[in-house]
Amino acid sequence: MNLLVTGGAGYIGSFMTKSLLDLGHNVTVIDNLKRGKRSAVDDRATFKEIDLNDDLSEIFIDSEFDSILHFAGLISVEESTKDPELYFKNNIEGSRNLFETAIKNNVRNFIFSSTAAVYGNPTQIPIPEDHDKKPTSPYGESKLKTERNLIEIRKNDPLVSFAVLRYFNACGASLNGEMGESHIPETHIIPLAIKAIMEGSEFKIFGDDYDTPDGTCLRDYIHVLDLVDAHLLALNKIIEIPGEYCFNVGTGNGISNLEVVEMVKKVSGKDLKLSNFPRRPGDADRLIADPSKIQSELNFIPKYSDLETIINSAWKWHNK
Ligand SMILES: NC(=O)c1ccc[n+]([C@@H]2O[C@H](COP(=O)([O-])OP(=O)(O)OC[C@H]3O[C@@H](n4cnc5c(N)ncnc54)[C@H](O)[C@@H]3O)[C@@H](O)[C@H]2O)c1
Fold it and tell me: Which residue ranges form the domains of the chain, and what is each CATH number?
């Protein structure tokens, strides 16, 4: 297939690009490189530096894409609370521009990277896809609005076929440590804990009085290689049986911040000094996926999402 990957210079998009190329597909990557790195894009892909809000028609001149995997977006909850307009323009308007330009050019298959942040503070654990959506940040709102825009777009054009994938916590690196997680700015717990161990600095725990067994937040960690598999399954689905789909992508297991810290200590063989900070506004006690829909409808079985494999791969990558 001919595939367009947006945000392919970022963490998850660069893994997706490599996997699609390994499977023999032709891949074009677009990215504005504001939060991604040109060096993360596999040399076998065609790369164009462009912003989602630019005139995107040139992307479609030479290629007839079978599908678009849309990863590009700003991803920091904290940053979004400081500058909501930036997130609305980038994530909502940028996505709308992408979908509209694609449709004008006869491309109607989309996989969209959404997030567990659309649920806000959940009232039901594990969280099913039909749980209430009450995002507590502009980031979550921007993703929910884009999901809803896709539904509207398909109402007006039933040939559109799409899957929304709501990721829980993406993490980990390639098993040989050659590719891994790096964000600008880094806000994710595993790279931050590894960095703290490598630099001998203190690691901040935000809140130790949550309603969880050890008092720290519980999150559902999904290895990036499993996440890529979920996209491949979703891609087949939207092509074989066109329609609109929405899946949580997680494991259904809750892992606490302290469990992450303990595993980083075990894998590295080093100690990590902790310092306790107050809770961050908007952090839910538990964000754990109900993954039964993706398991039963797409036969999705995570292979690499146990905590030891996740941290081992991340540790290898950070050491390279
Ligand atoms: N990392 C996670 O745990 C996680 C969880 C849930 C959802 N997601 C979603 O997955 C997607 C990928 O996340 P990631 O962790 O790889 O983030 P990332 O920041 O590493 O990658 C995003 C990429 O998109 C590019 N980009 C952003 N805005 C753009 C624009 N307007 N035009 C062109 N390129 C633009 C950035 O330069 C970057 O390379 C995002 O949409 C994010 O919201 C990620």
Answer: 2-170+220-249 (3.40.50.720), 173-219+254-287+304-319 (3.90.25.10)
